[in-house]
Every structure is written in C-alpha cells, then in structure tokens.
C-alpha cells in the first residue's frame, strides 16, 4: 500500500485543493478508498482525517469497500426511467444475486446506479465493465449477464 | 488531403461509440486504404437514435444504424464510384421512403446549428480541423483588434443569456467580473452536467472542445483573468479525454499559455474532475468543490463576480455559453441578436429524449414551438400508436408541460411562465404510458438524494415530499396529501439557499397543475391511469391466449398456470408484477392485459 500511495503523492504538493484529485487517484488505484489511505492523505495534506472523510463521503464517486470483479451500472436518468429503467435494475439485481445496489459477497459483481450515463438515445442503458449496452429489455439483460458470465468462465 | 473529393465521417460520440463505431472506423480505414477517400471520426452528429452514423461528404450521404457487416458495401460504393448504399439510408418514419442525404432529413433541415456547427463535422482530436473552420479567429480578433471593454460590450449587445438554465444575461456577468478590482481573476466553465436526461454539454465537449476553450480565453481577455478551470463530471471520460487533447494542442500552437499568439496576453486552462455531486452545478458549490471541500453552496452576495474561487473575482458560465462567444466576436453582436426572440437571443441546444422517435441532440433558434421540436424534428412518438402526454424540460428544476402547451415558444420567459424552465437543455418526451405521479416521485427521489443538507427545508422537506409521493404511487395515498405537498413546496422554495432547493418542488407543482386528475386517481381510486405503478396494477391473461407457454416459461415466480395449447391464467398471489409476460406475449396474440383501479374488487 505504502509504495503506491507515495507514488501518487509525488504528483501533488499536498495542498488543500488537491484533496479531491488525490482521492480520485487513490480510488483509481485500489478501486476504493482503504482506511489506511485516508489516514495517509490526511497526513500528506495536513488536513484532519475527519475533513478528508467529510469530503470523500460527500461525493457519490467515492466508496470505502472494494468493488466486485464485474461492475454494472444501471442508468437512472430521466430518459431511461420513462423507458423502463426500474424494471431493468430489478432484473440485473435478481440475475447477479443482489436485492439492490451493492456488491455480492463473493466479490463477483458490484451493482450501482448512476444519475445519467448520457446516452439517452439508447435508453434504457447500463454499463457492464464500462461498456455501454443500450435499448435493453428484461430478456436482453438476462442474456447479457449470462453471456458475460460465460466469457469470464472460459477465460 | 484537402484535395480529396470524398471524406467519410464516422460519429464517435458516446452514443455511437457504445454502438461499436470505433470498430466500424477501423474497418472503414482498412477497407479504404490506398484509395483517395479520407476517413475521419467526429463528435456527436446528433441523431443518436440512428447511430452509428456514417456520412459521406461532400454529398452529405447519410447512413444510419451502420453495422460492421455494412462496411463492405460502403467501401465498395466508394471505391468503385458506384451509387450510394440505399439500404442504409434513413427511412422517413411517415413515408418509409429512404432519404439519401442529411439535408433531406427533417431532423436536420429544421435545425439551426451554430453551437453545434462543428459537432459531427470535424475531428475533435485534431486542432487543424478546427482551425480550418475558422477556429481561434475570434480569439485573435478579440486580443489584437478589440479592447476588453469592446469584447464585454459585444457580449452585452448580443443579448446572450446563460445557457446553464437560469438565463442570466451573460454580458452583465462579464461586466461585473471585469469591474471587480483584482490582479488575479478566474474563468470557470461549468461542465458538471448533472441533469438526468441531458447530454448537450457532453456532446459539445466531445465534438468541438476547442470552441469552449476559445470562448473561455476570450472571456479571460475581457475580464482580465489568467487562469481558467473546466469543472467536468467524471462520468464523462470521453469528454475529459478530448478536452485534455485539445488543451495540449492549443498550448503547443500558442492559443493557450504564455503570450498567446505572440501577444502579451497569458491564459491557461486546467480540467477539474467533478466527483459526482449534482449540487456542484450551483456556482458557489462548484467553487467550494474546486477548493477541495464538500461542495455546499453558500449565500450570495457576495457573488462570485466579486468574491469567487480563492476569494478572487470569478466568472462562471456554462459550456454552451462559452461555445457561443466566438460566434458573437466573429460575426458581430448584431448578427447574433438577429436570431431568436426579443428577449432570448441565439439558439437553444436540446437533448431530445424519452418516448420520441428521433432521440438525439438538436439545436433550434429560440422562439420555435415545442410542437415543432417534438413532432417535426423529433419525428413524434417513439411508438406511433401512443399519444403524447407531456414534455419535461429543465431537469429536476423544471416541469412537465401537457399537450395544450405544445405551441408555447421555446424561450426563457415563455417556459417559466408556463411553469417549467429552459434549463440546461434536457427535453424528455412522455407518452400515455408514463405515470406523471411517478415522474414527480422520480425527480423528488433525485433531488432528495442530491440535497447537500445545508438548508433544513430542502434536506427534510424533499424527504417529506418524497415519502408522500411514494405513498401515493404505492396505493397508500390519503385525502389531504395533495394539499400537504403544495404546502411543503412553498416552504422548500422559500427556505432554501440555492437553486437546487428553490426549484426542487417544481416537478411536483407542474404535474399537480396539469395532471391533478392522475394524483386523484391514485389517491381516491387506487388506480394508475398509465398502468405503471406496480402496487396498483394486476396482470391478466385474456381468453384469446393460444397457450404457447412463452409467458409460463419466462415467469420467474411460476405464477402462470396452464397446459400447452390451453388457456393460461395468472395466480395473483404468486405474481410479482415484473411484466415479463406482457413483454414476451407475441404481438399477434397480445393476450396479456394490465388492469388498474377497481380490478381488485373483481378479483376478490
């Protein structure tokens, strides 16, 4: 952990206004913000750890638990909503074994919702490991998750 | 390269990229290697519904929904000089006739593309493409032929108003910031496009990033700033990447940095990655966020023009506002003021989405009616058999307007008068299958989550409103709920510091104003007229069922019972109302019906 963090810190001066970019870099590296990294960031920026948590918890982007190997984001933008996003979310959750947003215990899947991916013309849409899939129906969702799971298995 | 008689343009906006346009570009390039046809990629061409889009210039041949297997015929027609590939033409939804060029397609011919003029035409990652279209001429003219006062005056005279939604006169903002005494000033660009259902700013950044940089540099010259920041949401990786490339190229060519174009004006721009907080679209919250804090708004005055980023005078405008600036400088304030209506000048860019045939990005002169946008440009309803119900503009701060308002001209003041607002440019069309109470609940759910929590009426009031709305859509609505919602709305509007809270009740208020009967049906009759609210509907199989068993096999709770080739029925106690039976029932049979309201009585 130490090494990767020092590497990141090298690119910054430790100023208050760098907190958000630092958090973003750390999360990019670990997929989440480990407890220890928060302490290190506090030391590096000379800002109380509580403040660092204050900033990190304010923004939707930051998380404090690791994500699963497969990352699914369901868009809940207006266009997706009126074209059936709630049913899509339900279907995805049911197919990966979750009730709602979250990460499965075996760390296989993380399911999140986002306010808008910005491809409203393809509504309803989700991203599966950053790849956008649009014009979905419940059936297509089921097939997609099955196909992706098959891909992982054969690798 | 310029001598090429043909250029193939492939759209690589986020929409088309997700439909595999990069692979199509690669195929096209390898197929056309060695020929004199140039292959270029561009930003969003606007008609995202028909993506991936491939265009052949100079004719303007428009190919829609291009798949990998279609590359071969396209390459063939280009190489052999044959006719265009007709089966890939866009088909007019009314006449089913293929239209060969985009000039013929109503979606384009009714638009007026100024801010979007380069989007879909130039390679956004190549500054030479931008320069060939007169790029950075506006900056040159401002720095070398004009005084800062003259630039501010031109923006004032043009009548340009903020494109972020509020519609504050841009020139006045510039004047305030210019007049504020300080050696250090900042120019900020708000690209934190958080409205769900909106992607105008993203498309401009992806398709024509230099236009935004040029506008910011002109602003920097006018107000006396040396530094600019673009606050862009992290959810837009492609926009950030293209901006970064554009900034580097502009620096290399001397359009940004020290001594711009060998003059004595210094100006540089950096990108700040937003971290996913809708409230940061509010100017004071955005500034606090760049400073490294929780992005919470503060009271104004002092306005950012006087005391903004790091307590210095700061100018903050939306992406599209900056993209308009170079046009004003190049063509003059009078030219710009000649477009649009008396009080709303220029054009409006909308992300047209929802239940509409042609989803995508459109730019229209101010003053055009909602009907023209939705039915002429947008091609009407996605499903032609469904009726138009409402159009939502202004995102979570705006409202839903019913059919009777379709002839409302689109300008800042008319939309506010109707109870909605221009907003940043999201326009979501809804049909008879959309439940307006659920839409109101949806927006309140959004604002309740995004409320930063500073002002109690916003933090707790939105929560209360959401609770009531949830009760209503889940069948627990009580008489008096509507009045309580109205009371809460007044309190939240009056007691919130920033625009988020002040406008949060708008979706509820406009739906109450125009669709009150739907609320009443939910509360008094436990009926959802749009048949969307799960708790208020039941699924039934009609006796036209042919017993194909498709629904039975797809039902995840085994609620559907019936022998093959015999009439099926649904055990309501097992049904989770997922609707999969409705979805899979063959259209020819169409035997699944959704009922609402008094249905429960029939069942018991």
Keywords:
heterodimer; A: 155 residues; Arc Repressor Mutant, subunit A; Glutaredoxin; five-stranded mixed beta sheet; elongated; B: 604 residues; alpha/beta; Rossmann fold; Ubiquitin-like (UB roll); 19 strands
Question: Could you characterize what this model shows?
Answer:
The complex is a heterodimer of chains A (155) and B (604). Chain A is of the alpha+beta class and 155 residues long. Chain A folds into two domains: 2-58, Arc Repressor Mutant, subunit A (Orthogonal Bundle), CATH 1.10.10; 70-154, Glutaredoxin. Helices cover 48% and strands 13% of the residues of chain A. In chain A, strands 2-3-1-4-5 form a five-stranded mixed β-sheet, with helices on one face. In chain A, α1 (2-9) packs antiparallel against α2 and α6 runs parallel beside α7. The model of chain A has no long low-confidence stretch (mean pLDDT 91). By secondary structure, chain B is an alpha/beta fold. Chain B is built from 25 helices and 19 strands. At the A-B interface, α2, α4, α5, α6 and β5 of A face α1, β11, β15, α17 and α24 of B.
Give a short synopsis of this structure.
The complex is a heterodimer of chains A (155) and B (604). Chain A contains seven helices and five strands; from the N terminus they run H-H-H-H-E-H-H-E-E-E-E-H. Chain A has 155 residues and is an alpha+beta fold.
